[in-house]
């Protein structure tokens, strides 16, 4: 069974750094793209970017490039999303999700439970 | 980037009736080499992660009730829910995966009338 288990909720101050995780199991981590999706309070889903753990190829949405860093650790089948300096506008639920198709980008067929990140002074 | 626009933003339908959600892309999602439309539909309920319902514009995911169907080609797509049930109340999103970034529509909130 494919599982994506995300790290717990975070409360941070503006300017702080943060790295959230997505631990996967039940499939070959290095052979499927895995990505991150943002949902701001009361808003829709925003595609942030995806990473191919096999070679660390990364595709970012222009909205998020330079604002976050997506990474992966093959040795522990875990993907990460990190910020170097959080803003209040980063307050959102962040979902990790596995791309459905082997070796290719595309739609997401399995999702983590979401991580709520709250940034407030 | 490909812009995905859904209509309506919200929809109220009586139990047992049909709900229709539209999704329009700013460029074609039909790949001529394989004649496939690179479009997916998701259902999203509060407090849960989104759930994949349909890929390739019309292929239902295993376990999705057959009252859900996807149609359309090129730039215009439709998610149809026949005989609406109470458990179908959710927000529905389309997503294109023709070109990165694989953008979502803004979502359509489906409620019971």
Task: Give your account of this protein's structure.
The complex is a heterodimer of chains A (about 120) and B (about 110). Chain A is mainly beta and about 120 residues long. Chain A is built from no helices and eleven strands. The radius of gyration of chain A is 14 Å and the shape is globular. In chain A, a hairpin with a 4-residue loop joins β5 (about 45-50) and β6. Chain A has strands at about 5, 10, 20-25, 35-40, 45-50, 55-60, 70-75, 80-85, 90-100, 110, 115-120. Chain B is mainly β. Chain B is about 0% helix and about 50% strand. Chain B has strands spanning about 5, 10-15, 20-25, 30, 35, 40-45, 50-55, 60, 70-75, 75-80, 90-95, 110. A six-stranded mixed β-sheet of chain B has the order 2-12-11-6-7-8, with no helix packed on it. In chain B, strands 1-3-10-9 form a four-stranded antiparallel β-sheet, with no helix packed on it. In chain B, strands 4-5 form a two-stranded antiparallel sheet. In chain B, β7 (about 50-55) and β8 form a beta hairpin. Chain B is globular, with a radius of gyration of 13 Å. Chain B starts with a strand and ends with a strand. The model of chain B has no long low-confidence stretch (mean pLDDT about 95). Chains A and B meet through β5 and β10 of A and β6, β7 and β11 of B.
């Amino acid at each position: 069974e494919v599982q994506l288990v995300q790290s717990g909720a975070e409360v941070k101050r503006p300017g702080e750094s943060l790295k959230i995780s997505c631990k996967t199991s039940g499939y070959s981590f290095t052979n499927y793209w895995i990505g991150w999706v943002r949902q701001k309070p009361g808003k829709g889903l925003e595609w942030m970017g995806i990473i191919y753990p096999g070679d660390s190829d990364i595709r970012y949405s222009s909205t998020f490039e330079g604002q976050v860093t997506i990474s992966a650790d093959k040795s522990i089948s875990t993907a990460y999303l990190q910020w170097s300096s959080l803003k209040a506008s980063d307050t959102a639920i962040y979902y990790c999700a596995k791309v459905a198709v082997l070796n290719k980008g595309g739609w997401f067929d399995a999702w983590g439970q979401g991580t709520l990140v709250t940034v407030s002074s | 980037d490909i812009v995905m626009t859904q209509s309506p933003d919200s929809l109220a339908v009586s139990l047992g009736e049909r709900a229709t959600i539209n999704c329009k892309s700013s460029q074609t999602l039909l790949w001529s080499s394989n004649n496939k439309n690179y479009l997916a539909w998701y259902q999203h309920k509060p407090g849960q992660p989104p759930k994949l319902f349909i890929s390739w514009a019309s292929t239902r995911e295993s376990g999705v009730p057959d009252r859900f169907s996807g149609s359309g080609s090129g730039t215009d797509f439709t998610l149809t829910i026949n005989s609406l049930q109470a458990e179908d109340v959710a927000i529905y999103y389309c997503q294109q995966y023709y070109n990165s970034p694989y953008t979502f529509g803004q979502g359509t909130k489906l409620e019971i009338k």
